[in-house]
Amino acid sequence: MAYDEKLAERVRVALAKRDDVVEKRMFGGIAFMVRGHMSCGIVSSTLMVRLAPADADGLMNEPHVRPMDFTGRSMRGFLYVDPAGTKTAATLRQWVERATAYAEAQPAKARSQAGPKRKRLVGKR
Fold first, then answer.
1. Which has the higher per-residue pLDDT, 92 or 69?
2. Among 48, 55, 92, 119, whose CB has the most other CB atoms within 10 angstroms?
């Protein structure tokens, strides 16, 4: 499944000042990992964000937001934000910042020496 490259580039811009972001193919799209934890991603043309479950529950009534149901079942702590909800740079940045705040709150993961190399965003901008 393809993902929206323009939205991916906008997310990269929002994350450009960080040196701890890695891109990884996931969910048929792309995920942005912060300190080894999934922060946000893109599935088709929709932004996916990972948040603390209580925070995600509290944001369910926001416009253009719905539970992530990639497998046919909603996944607690994961939300889809439809394109209308990420139309401006400010709204996209707000969602990306929420997702990176959750990833930052998790214990840092040790870098794995095994597995395929992933595209790092360091120095991208």
1. 92
2. 48
